[in-house]
Amino acid sequence: MSRAQILATADRVAAPHIVVAIMGDGILWTHEADWTAALRGLIQTYLGDDRRAGTRGTYADPGCSYEDDLAESAFRDVTEHRFPVARAWTPEDVLGYLRTTSFARPALFAGRHHEFEAESLRLLKDHARGGVLKENAVFTVLLAHRRGGNG
User: Fold this and answer.
1) How far is it, in rounded angstroms, from Cα 42 to Cα 1?
2) CB 144, CB 68: distance < 8 Å
3) Model-level pTM?
4) CA 72, chain centre distance (Å)
5) What would the DSSP string read from start to end of 51-82?
6) Strands across the sheet with 133-145, in order?
7) Which of 12, 21, 150 has its CA nearest to residue 74?
8) Can you tell me the distance from the alpha carbon of 141 to that of 83, in angstroms, rounded to the nearest whole number?
9) Triad 142, 97, 41: Cα angle to 5°
10) What is Dmax (Cα atoms) for the chain?
11) What one-character DSSP code corresponds to residue 50?
12) pLDDT by position in tens, the chain (length 151)
């Protein structure tokens, strides 16, 4: 379902005063750090240059931001709240996380997942400082309500 359809459905079924919240902090695929860039490169050596998405195909950029989607919807009054988040990952934590993603889940590796994980673990341990990989992200929350609403 498209973002526009989701927002149109929310407009149709939700009480007049509701607030729509869109939130996130990105993913390791897009995080800019030496270790994430190296990991992304390793994933691409196994799976190709494009980022995987869903059960088949590759990720396609939506073409516009959530703010743009909201501006075109009934929920035009938007406030943004940003919260810095510092995470410390172990190499093993990162491998566990990758298993849950659309871009590096085991099924994508056509029998080479064990090899990929072994190489990833070596790469991540080489980048870890004191056994820790740092991720400094920003958790963004967009709160949107209808114009004239009291949300």
Assistant:
1) 31
2) no
3) 0.76
4) 23
5) PB-TTSSB----SS-HHHHHHTSS--EEEEEE
6) 20-24, 133-145, 77-89
7) 12
8) 8
9) 95
10) 57
11) S
12) 688 899 999 999 999 999 999 998 877 778 889 999 999 999 999 988 765 655 566 555 666 788 889 999 999 999 999 999 999 999 999 999 999 988 888 988 889 999 999 999 999 999 999 999 999 999 999 999 997 655 4
Tokens of 149: 């609403």
- With contact defined as beta carbons under 8 Å apart, do 141 and 20 qualify? no
In whole angstroms, give the CA distance from residue 16 to residue 23. Answer: 21
Q: Using CA atoms, how far apart are residues 16 and 149, in angstroms rounded to an integer?
A: 7
What type of residue sits at position 73?
S
Tokens of 20: 């729509």
- Written as one letter, the residue type at 83 is F
Token pair listed for 58: 């590759």
The length of the chain, given as a count of residues: 151
